[in-house]
Design goal:
Elements: H1 3-18, H2 31-35, E1 45-51, H3 58-69, E2 75-80, H4 99-103, E3 114-117, E4 120-123, H5 137-150, E5 156-163, H6 167-175, E6 178-183, H7 187-206, E7 215-221, H8 224-241, E8 248-253, H9 257-263, H10 268-271, H11 276-294, H12 300-309, H13 312-316
Parallel strand pairs: 1-5, 1-6, 2-4, 2-5, 6-7, 7-8
Antiparallel strand pairs: 3-4
Helix pairs in contact: 1-5, 3-11, 5-12, 6-7, 6-12, 7-8
Bound molecules: adenosine-5'-triphosphate and magnesium ion.
The site of adenosine-5'-triphosphate has 19 residues, from helix 3, strand 7 and helix 9.
């Protein structure tokens, strides 16, 4: 039995967990076959907040954006910092279950949905489980399939990504309709942001995905001038070496309100919406919301599932 057959076999075990014990009767089709037919039912728009370097403010921004977005539709927040999750803290919930249970085959994705606030549910990432940071292909496929099942119940999917360039992290970003790449003015964060763009472009190409570059947000800038410089330096290097135009969505100032709200287990939007961070985020979000509403909502779960099942030879191309 080759590696893939083995994964398939294991997947059927995962499937059993998702279907409450019984395997579906239809013959097992390839993910591409499942994606192609009929008119699309999924209309959930997806956005991933990513960064190369850790600690750039992804979770603080995602939490605040989730609280803004739930005024426009039903939001599902997916904590993709698997194993080191903390998205639940910003909404003061204590999830009983997480992706750790899904990967263990004990629960389906739909069974870990944790209500946070009116119009906002969370898929918790799980804490203190190191193995979750390096999932196997069939495990990612299983998560994609489970996500595809819950997505149609929502208007928006927000993915709070882990930092870094792992295949798993980039796969979540590539699966979403839109990706925001967060950097700070720190030169190490900028270098890692460029590294993320490079890997993102390569991985999308290897997977045959036609994707625009992520949109850049400069966080913790001390002035408009500083944010502009960060944006133009990254735009120059991206244009030169990746031959693509990087769009800067906006910038968010350094603001102690982020710390205060996090300590109170709140997002800035629910705790201090009139703070500098709150107002800047609202500005960035209005543009983002328009772009999200214009996207086709293809379904991040299905994309993730398909990407995880592409033969390894194709992915390495
Ligand atoms: N605009 C800001 N002003 C001041 N502090 C900020 C700002 N944005 C984020 N922070 C602080 O930076 C730290 C990291 O933030 P956060 O956890 O949101 O980053 P992250 O990118 O999600 O990190 P990780 O990569 O570990 O998931 C936190 O202490 C947070 O309070
Ligand atoms: Mg985070």
């Amino acid at each position: 039995m080759n590696r893939w057959d083995h994964a398939r076999q294991l997947l059927r075990i995962g499937r059993r967990a998702e279907t409450g014990g019984s395997l579906p009767e239809e013959p097992f089709r390839t993910p591409m076959e499942r994606v192609q037919p009929g008119p699309r039912s999924v209309r959930c728009r997806s956005l991933c907040i990513a960064s190369g370097k850790g600690g750039t403010g992804k979770s603080s921004m995602t939490a605040a954006f989730a609280d803004l977005l739930r005024g426009h539709g039903k939001v599902l927040l997916l904590d993709a910092d698997l194993g080191c999750a903390n998205a639940h803290i910003f909404h003061d919930v204590h999830p009983e279950h997480s992706f750790a249970d899904v990967v263990a085959g004990d629960r389906g994705v739909h069974e870990i949905v944790t209500p946070c606030a009116p119009g906002l549910d969370l898929l918790p990432g799980g804490s203190g489980v190191g193995r979750l940071a390096g999932l196997r292909e069939y495990e990612l496929e299983m998560i994609g399939r489970g996500l595809a099942r819950v997505e149609p119940d929502y208007d928006f999917l927000l993915v709070d990504s882990a930092a870094g360039l792992s295949r798993q992290t980039v796969a979540f970003a590539a699966a979403c309709d839109q990706t925001v790449l967060v950097t700070t003015p720190d030169v190490t964060a900028m270098t890692d942001a460029y590294a993320f763009l490079k890997v993102f472009v390569r991985q999308c190409a290897a997977l045959g995905q036609q994707r625009e570059l992520p949109l850049l947000v400069v966080n913790r800038a001390t002035s408009d001038q500083e944010a502009k410089e960060v944006g133009s330096r990254l735009r120059d290097v991206t244009g030169k070496f990746l031959d693509q135009r990087l769009e800067v969505l906006g910038w968010i100032p350094e603001d102690r309100a982020v710390f205060r709200c996090t300590q109170r287990r709140q997002s800035v939007v629910s705790g201090e919406p009139e703070s500098e961070f709150g107002r800047a985020l609202e500005q960035v979000s209005s543009d983002l919301l328009t772009r999200l509403q214009d996207s086709d909502g293809t379904g991040a779960g299905e994309r993730l599932e398909v990407m995880s099942t592409r033969p390894a030879k194709t992915r390495r191309a």
